[in-house]
Structures are given as structure tokens and as C-alpha cells.
Amino acid sequence: MSKYRLVALLVIVSIVLLAFTLLVRDIHDLEYVVPDFVEEVLIQEEKYPTMLFVGDVMLGRHVESLMEENGIEFPFKNVALVLETPDVTVGNFEGIVSEEHVHSPSMTFQFSIQPDYLRQLHEKGFDVLSLANNHSFDYGLPALQHTRSLCILYSLVCSGTPTELDEYSTQILQVGSKKVGIIFIHTVFKQPDVDTLKKLIEKLNQESDVQFSFVHWGVEYDLIHSTTQEDLAKIMI
């Protein structure tokens, strides 16, 4: 490469880096902009009932440190309207409220969540939380039962069991004029008993107008689904 081409290339790279720096700075300074789909929901919600399903909600470890530094509302600063707009918002509660709170150090995988954070979830729009995941037993059965009690106290519907399908695995909600049935399933450690699964789904079909499966599954850090997931999905369908 000639000297002049090299100089030209360095100038171009410098300009690109400068533009990127300015863009990042501008994005950081922008006020939150409501996504178009939320505006659509706001327009339509008087005509149709709406539900929002989100994934893992983890308020321990470094997230807890950020909340202590920046205030309890920090994680919800730019998503509150998205969470509050639907008639029902459902998420997976990735952690548990242990009877004695323990701040989870970074890079550890035992998630103890502050009890006040449950109330914050309700205040920021969550209605239903799944406890069917691989962290609901981080502090044993007493913590799971303690969390269920707090959910009632904070007007949250908390359903699901981390180890099996049982009486906590299904929930029927009134959403607008419809009865909506949800089954909460955890498959990270083992697959659910198929006969029990079919019976619970059939019961939901009989008692509700619309049914959803809310599943915590997959291989950790894999970016695509497995054949096991696909087979289970076909059974649920």
C-alpha cells in the first residue's frame, strides 16, 4: 500500500470513529422514545385486551448494586410505559426472595432478591411472575414459599414450580372479556412428565378461552433451540 493510500485510510478510519463517538454520546443524551408498537397498543387497548410477555427479570447481583447506587426505579427508567400499557404483563422472576437477604456477588449464580423489589415490579406494571425456573430453589423450599406469600402481599400472581408440574403450574386470568389460561413450565434440568403436561393443558382448554405456555427452557448460552425443545413444543401445540 502506498504512503498516500495509507494516510487516506487512516483519515477515513478517524472520521468513522469520531462519528461513532458523537452518535453514542447523542444516543446516551436522548430522552426515551416510546416505541411505535406501544402507541399502537394505546390506540387499540380500548377495543382489544392486550398482554405482554417478557423474559428473565433478574434484580440481583450487579443489577442490585446499580439499584442501590441509582435508585430502586433505575432498571425500569426506559421501559415503564412498555410494561404498564398492556392489560396484563407477564415475566419470569429469575431469582427468589430468601428469608434473610444475601447480596449476590458478581459472577455467582445464587440469586437472592430484595423483597421491596417485588413490590417495585408490581408498581412498574408486572401482573404475573413465573417461578418455574432454575433459580426459584436457590435458597430452598422455605424461600420459595416465602416468595409466594410476598407475591400475594404485593398483588402479584406468582405461578409455577421449579422442579415439577403441580397445582401451582397453571393460572387462569380474566383479560377483558376473555379467560386466559397460562401454564408455567421449567425444563432446564429435566423434561416435564408428558402425561401430566397433557392433562394440565386439557384442563386449561376446558376452563379458558385462550391458552399460553410460558416456558423456561433451552441449553445455557446456546443461541438456537434443541430438538428436545422442538419435540416438547409440538406436544404443547
Show the helix and strand layout.
Layout: H1 3-29, H2 36-44, E1 51-57, H3 61-70, H4 80-84, E2 88-93, H5 115-123, E3 128-130, H6 140-153, E4 157-159, E5 170-175, E6 178-186, H7 194-207, E7 210-216, H8 227-236
Parallel strand pairs: 1-2, 2-3, 3-4, 6-7
Antiparallel strand pairs: 5-6
The total count of strands amounts to 7
Instruction: Provide the helix percentage.
Output: 40-55%
Largest sheet: 4 strands, parallel
The H-and-E topology, N to C, reads as: HHEHHEHEHEEEHEH
Uncertain stretches of 5 or more adjacent residues: 16-30
Work out the radius of gyration: 22 Å
User: How much of the residues is beta strand, in percent?
Assistant: 15-25%
Strand order of the largest sheet: 1-2-3-4
Report the span from N to C terminus.
60 Å
Which whole number gives the mean pLDDT?
A: 87
Q: How does this structure look, described?
A:
The chain is an alpha/beta fold and 237 residues long. Helices cover 41% and strands 17% of the residues. The chain contains eight helices and seven strands. The chain has helices at 3-29, 36-44, 61-70, 80-84, 115-123, 140-153, 194-207, 227-236, and strands spanning 51-57, 88-93, 128-130, 157-159, 170-175, 178-186, 210-216. The strands form two sheets. Strands 1-2-3-4 form a four-stranded parallel beta sheet. A three-stranded mixed beta sheet has the order 5-6-7, covered by helices on one side.
